Amino acid sequence: MGKTRLVRAVCDDAVKATVLWGRCVRFGAVDSPYGPLVNALEGWVESAEPHELTEVLDAVPAAGQLLPALGGHHEVRLLSVVDGLVMAIARQRPTILVVDDVQWADPASRDALAYLVAGFRSQRLAILATYRDEELGTGHPMHSWLADLRRLPSVTDVRLDRLSWDETEQQVAMLLGDRPRRGLVDAVVRRSDGNPYLSELLLEGVSVTADELPADLPAELSGALLAAWHRLSAPGREVMRLLAVAGRPSSIDDLREVAASAGIGPDAVTRALAEAVNTGMSVAQGADLCWFRHPLVAEVLYATFVPGEAETVHAAWAKALASRPATGLDEVQRQGDLALHYEAARDLESCLEASLRAADLASGIKARREEAVHLRRAARLWPIVHGSDAEEVGLLERVARSNALVGDGEASFQAWSRALELVDERTDPLRACRLLRRWADSAFATGRTSGRPIAEAEHAVELSRAFPDSEEYADALAFLSWCQWWNNELELSGKYAEEAVQAAHRSGSNVALSLAYAVRGNADIHGERSDTDTATGLRFAELTGDPELIWRMLVIRHNYLTRRGRLLECIEPIKRFLAFALDEGALSVAVFAAGLLSHHLLMFGRLPESAEVIREGLSLAGLPNAGAMARLSAASLSVRQGNADVAGLHVQRAEELMPGLENRTGLFAQPVLAEYLIATGRPEQALDMLSRTIGTQYVDTRDADELLVWGARVAADLMEAARDRREAVGSIHAAYDELLSARRRMQPQPFELGGPDDLIQPAMQALFTAETARYKAQSPTSAQWEDAVRRCDTAGLLWDEAVASLRWAQALLDEGSSRAVVAVPLRSAHRFAVQAGANPLRQQVEAFAALCAIPLQEPTQPSPPETPGPLRSLTKREQEVLSYLVAGRTYAEIAKALFISEKTVSVHVSNLLHKTGTSSRREVAALAVRLGQTPRN
User: Domain HTH luxR-type, which positions (predicted)?
Assistant: First the structure.
């Protein structure tokens, strides 16, 4: 069997599962967003039990805005609705979502599939997506999508190879009911090339006793697909050809209208469809749509038209569709279909108009990928229809912006390049300035320039200098300031930034003001007004509503806050921006935001929050560096959750996206790679990598300081292991000394404060100091670790605080402290590890606690209505004391936790024994456990 039949057989066997089946249709270059998924969900709506339908729709109120059957108008962020509906259905019973022929899926559907399988949550959902690899030519977007998907957890790729001779013989025997003759099998293998679907078609009407296939079959394999069609009546064959031109499942009314233009009446169409269904060539889809049983049939039938013959049929389909306006996604699809039919009918002017209407509609519902596709077609047709003119330049600007917004940097660059070619600098210098500025930005983003394009920035300033009050002049000055800052020309950067602010105020443009204030704050990032300037730049950007501009200004604001040690202030603004970017369909910047936000959430130990953000990032296509950042966060989270193999897949994909990952700046790659190498038993490689790459962090030495902490951590681990095994430590010292020397050569000095509110650097320095003491085997070290825990707690670095708490407990034990003292930081680390799902850390803490015979369970008390009879007479304080006895606490620990004396604890325990009729604290604790009062893990 082929891919589709295999999946159907699997789904037929899954009798206790809900099956959602969506099929992608090949029709030109674009489909409406979420086409196959909407189709699958609509099928479920038609077949669902009333009570299940009600429960699911109640759980996802926005469902009515997605599904046409419920009157949807599609003005919401559809991905969240698709996800909500699928998960609500899966909560009813195990669910299988099938997307057949995903090589033809629209980009939004591929995003949704990636989101559903991205992991980091449990779900009773299996997703089966089929595709034909012969459809994937060089440069097909499926290649990158598949590469991303294969690096996600729980994804398996099953390849269906061509059938061998023996396998074909088995198939023929099953189809014909007996073992076939060798000559017949030879003929089938020769003509089908092992394709099981073609083999089945070739055998229609063939007897098992035949030695050969019928001689009258066409020599080409496409003839096998047309075998059933040749057996139709003449009107039936013509109606099927008309349907093939439609390109997708079509309504019977539309088919009748098209057929009428060819002189075929409505009754003849009905008879032809019945005939095609009876022969297995066509199938009904719902009550109104008809299509072919296999999409290959439509392709082969379309090929039966001689050149020019199909033009009138396309014109007829365009006429039929033009009379049936729709709304929302359906109208985007209708206009897209009209454009393709008009183009095939050589009505290029109408095609251009339909393409622009489709782009406008897609923009209105924030379907940005579809908008970009329609705009690209319009840009291709414009010079043919109208010739090159000023309006074409405006269209190309729109093409460039829309493609940049969805992460297609190459298409954006080509559009900027073409627009720049069409503009004469002498007659339209301001537009030339604007285009040159955007072109230069795009050239850098797509890797065409290694450094910031200062020459182009200077030329843009010269082009606009005669217009000192213009937005373009202010923008060009700001861009030049930014480029000079990247080249470390800080004095020049500040000079141009000051001029940009003055020009921006003269222009009155929010765009210019946002850029100017942001770059001035960036140029003087250590100055007093940097705080106000970067905040002002972001505020003006937010007034424009432009996601790309807002993101640029947010990054500058983020960089300022990071350098001042106010990193915690960055999280909420980036969270708000991510939600905004997703709502706006600004996928390229949304990926960047997800990568940056997830990195910070992991740094602050907020693992569950980071998991949801990472899912968003993994589901979106974007520029390679943004995708790599999301993958690195996924790798770090996987390591901390105990999934090192999964982390390896994410690291591998990040390396594919950004080769030479360990030497890149701004991606936070080195700490993640070090963490992954440690988790997979390769600490020597981690230390070597950190020593080699710390010099790349000259742009922001705070990143270098983070690498310094990781280096000290790895070196200390290696030294402990070497001392335990009585091994030489010379290579460890050499690698670590190289790391320290590389950092000393950088300015400013390690762990320099970014400002009076900087809490991050003191915490990092405390961690470094404690790890260095461990590296040198100094004793005592508990004071250093206590300081590290306290400073990490103040800075909100919960992950580092938990790790340091474990080290503190180990140091206390080494110094002879009592179990009660050791237990305090140990239980704190355990609490975090349990709440965050940090399984490796939890296992380390529990192993150490077992060694020290320290119970880790947290006390818990039953609520009053649930208190069992023997415990009902206890006072609130006695219940508290009992909960600590159940958790295994000593009198001293109970006294410290409840702020009472040990003597008072003893009195409460005596009362407990008397009221419960027990004779010891162990007996009363055991009674409480039997009655359901269990410690909390």
Answer: 867-932
- Quickly state the pLDDT bin for 217 (edges 50, 70, 90): very low
Report residue 100: phi and psi, to 5°: -90, 140
pLDDT surpassing 70 at residue 29? no
Residue 264 in domain: yes
The reply to whether 293 and 308 lie within a common domain is yes
Task: Report residue 74 CA to chain centroid gap.
Answer: 22
Q: Is residue 358 part of a domain?
A: yes
Residue 681: how many other CB atoms lie within 10 Å: 9
Judge if 702 and 846 occupy the same domain.
Answer: yes
Q: Where is mean pLDDT largest: 2-16, 126-140, 264-278, 906-920?
A: 264-278
463 is a domain residue: no
Residue 760 has which token pair? Answer: 């991050």
Host domain of residue 802: 664-852
CB contact at 8 A, 301 and 240: yes
**Residue 223: what pLDDT?**
61
741-767 mean pLDDT: 93
Residues 827, 689 share a domain = yes
How many CA atoms lie less than 13 Å away from 142 in the CB half-sphere?
A: 17
Q: Are 209 and 173 in contact (CB under 8 A)?
A: no
pLDDT at 585 over 60: yes
**In contact, 406 and 587? CB cutoff 8 Å:** yes
User: Cβ distance 473 to 488 under 8 Å?
Assistant: no
Give pTM, 2 decimals.
0.81
The answer to whether 629 and 595 have CB atoms below 8 angstroms apart is yes
Asked whether 407 and 623 are in contact (CB, 8 A), the reply is yes
Over residues 326-349, mean pLDDT:
91
pLDDT at 924: 85
Residues 772 and 900 in one domain: no
Q: Is the peptide bond before 307 cis (omega within 30 degrees of 0)?
A: no
* Residue where a domain stops, chosen among 393, 426, 452: 393
User: Bridge-partner residues for 20, per DSSP?
Assistant: 97
Question: Of 119-128, 627-636, 922-931, where does the model show the most confidence?
Answer: 627-636
Q: Are residues 836 and 725 in the same domain?
A: yes
Residues 6 or more apart whose CB falls under 8 angstroms from that of 749 comprise none
Distance CA 577, CA 547 (A): 8
Identify whether residues 830 and 878 lie together within a single domain.
no
Distance CA 374, CA 406 (A): 13
Mean pLDDT over residues 55-65, rounded? 82
For the segment 199-221, the average pLDDT, to the nearest whole number, is 71
**Cα distances (angstroms) measured from residue 610 to each of 494, 617, 837:** 37, 10, 12
Domain end among 393, 418, 447: 393
Asked if 146 and 218 sit in the same domain, the reply is no
Q: Residue 128 is part of a domain; what is its CATH number?
A: 3.40.50
Within 10 Å of residue 748's Cβ, how many Cβ atoms?
11
H/E element holding 715?
helix 701-725
Asked whether residue 472 is assigned to any structural domain, the reply reads no
In 3D, which of 190, 271, 193, 205 has the Cα closest to residue 234? 271
Q: How far is CA 154 from CA 119, 157, 621, in A?
A: 8, 10, 20
**How many structural domains are present in the chain?**
5
Do 259 and 381 fall into the same domain?
Answer: yes
What's the Cα-to-Cα distance from 511 to each of 485, 573, 614, rounded to whole Å?
20, 19, 31
